[in-house]
């Protein structure tokens, strides 16, 4: 629920929606999000091995504790970022996120115990939650309804393309030098660059959301999507409790989106924490592990340049369902195959499945939520989505300790497939049929 003290930018000041009208700020936010992705990418191929080899952790659950701390804090930071962005604006939240992220690489470089690494990932979770959520919200603000899928595809492509490149670079640096400090040195530059760009060049976008809300109100209560979005004034200013319940459970489509997001990041937590250990047990070198850790987000990031825009034409539901089913199949195939080349195939399929889902889920949330409370709805969705890291790391660790890594991978693959089946059963198509703003 917006505060009367929030920064205002009335339509009379010349605010325009659309990618073309706001391309400079949009590109700047794409670059900022690339630095956000680079921060987390440095960890994806190295930190699980660091836990085993540098700190002597024998339990898989203990090794994956850094993902649990990251996911729990990031989920809560997403919720905080969405609500705060609706109340006080976007830019300040973005800057705070970068300030919190500055110490992360230094803490890992100088860590004398595993607790330091876990604490570094608490800060990283806050950084990722505040910064990534805010860049998503700001891009949605700028482009309006007609190109949401494209906007989210570009945003996620930049973020996860950077995750991929950073993971590959960290694997190369670790293979060439050591597990510390060289792989984490680029993180210092990422954090400083993201902070400076956000402070100096990024502009507040809250006024664009208000402008869209004004234009939406002029449609005199017409329903915009199959998910029953309405312009009735009572829907414009729901309480946070109502937003939380709508996004989490009451609206069947938003529930379908939220559960798919949770399971998507549940299997991403598996990929981040368990795949490096699985590949190492299969005899691969650190450089090969780093390459595999980079291929999955690399395909995911690159393909989103197509899938996000495609959802603006074909619709959201089919791509979400198909993407979850493909992810489940790819994960299930992984323990059935052996060797670097076959594992590359599995990682490519997993990346393609994730690319179908990731920008489309955000676009679907934006289709349904009213502009006045959209940032809060995105925050609630991202709360559930990133809770998947916690659940995935905990489930994968327990299953791996009790039954072995192969069983852990197989169970999570099955859960991912079932999530696609559930999305098919409960979701409605959300692609806007009434384009009240031309972008």
UniProtKB/TrEMBL annotation:
It is a multi-pass membrane protein. It comes from the Bacteria. This is MFS transporter. Residues 26-431 form the Major facilitator superfamily (MFS) profile domain. Pfam families: MFS_1. It is found in: Cell membrane. Keywords: Cell membrane, Membrane, Transmembrane, Transmembrane helix, Transport. It comes from Dictyobacter formicarum.
């Amino acid at each position: 629920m917006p505060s009367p003290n929030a920064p205002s930018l009335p339509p009379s000041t010349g605010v325009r929606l659309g990618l073309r009208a706001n391309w400079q700020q949009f590109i700047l936010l794409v670059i900022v999000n690339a630095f956000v992705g680079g921060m987390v990418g440095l960890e994806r191929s190295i930190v699980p091995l660091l836990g085993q080899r540098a700190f002597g952790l024998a339990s898989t659950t203990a090794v994956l504790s850094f993902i649990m701390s990251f996911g729990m804090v990031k989920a809560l930071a997403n919720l905080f970022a969405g609500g705060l962005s609706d109340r006080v604006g976007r830019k300040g939240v973005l800057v705070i996120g970068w300030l919190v992220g500055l110490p992360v690489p230094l803490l890992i470089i100088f860590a004398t115990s595993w607790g330091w690494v876990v604490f570094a990932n608490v800060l990283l979770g806050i950084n990722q939650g505040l910064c990534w959520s805010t860049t998503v919200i700001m891009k949605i603000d700028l482009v309006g309804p007609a190109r949401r899928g494209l906007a989210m595809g570009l945003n996620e492509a930049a973020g996860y393309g950077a995750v991929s490149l950073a993971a590959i670079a960290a694997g190369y640096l670790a293979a060439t030098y050591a597990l510390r400090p060289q792989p984490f040195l680029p993180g210092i530059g990422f954090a400083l660059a993201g902070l400076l760009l956000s402070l100096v060049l990024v502009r507040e976008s809250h006024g664009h959301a208000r402008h869209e809300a004004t234009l939406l109100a002029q449609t005199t209560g017409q329903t915009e999507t199959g998910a029953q979005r309405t312009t009735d004034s009572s829907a414009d200013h729901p309480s946070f409790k109502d937003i939380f319940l709508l996004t989490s459970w009451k609206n069947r489509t938003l529930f379908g989106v939220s559960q798919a997001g949770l399971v998507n990041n549940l299997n991403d937590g598996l990929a981040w924490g368990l795949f490096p250990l699985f590949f190492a047990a299969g005899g691969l070198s650190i450089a090969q592990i780093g390459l595999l850790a980079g291929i999955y987000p690399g395909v995911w990031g690159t393909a989103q340049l197509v899938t996000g825009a495609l959802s603006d034409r074909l619709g959201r539901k089919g791509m979400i369902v198909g993407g979850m089913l493909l992810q489940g199949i790819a994960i299930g195939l992984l323990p059935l195959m052996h060797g670097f080349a076959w594992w590359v195939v599995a990682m490519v399929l997993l990346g393609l499945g994730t690319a179908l889902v990731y920008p489309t889920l955000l676009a679907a949330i934006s289709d349904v939520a009213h502009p006045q409370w959209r940032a809060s709805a995105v925050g609630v969705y991202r709360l559930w989505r990133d809770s998947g890291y916690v659940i995935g790391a905990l489930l994968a660790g327990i299953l791996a300790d009790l039954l072995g890594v192969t069983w852990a991978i197989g169970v999570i693959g099955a859960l991912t497939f079932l999530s696609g089946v559930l999305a098919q059963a409960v979701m409605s198509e959300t692609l806007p049929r009434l384009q009240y703003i031309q972008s």
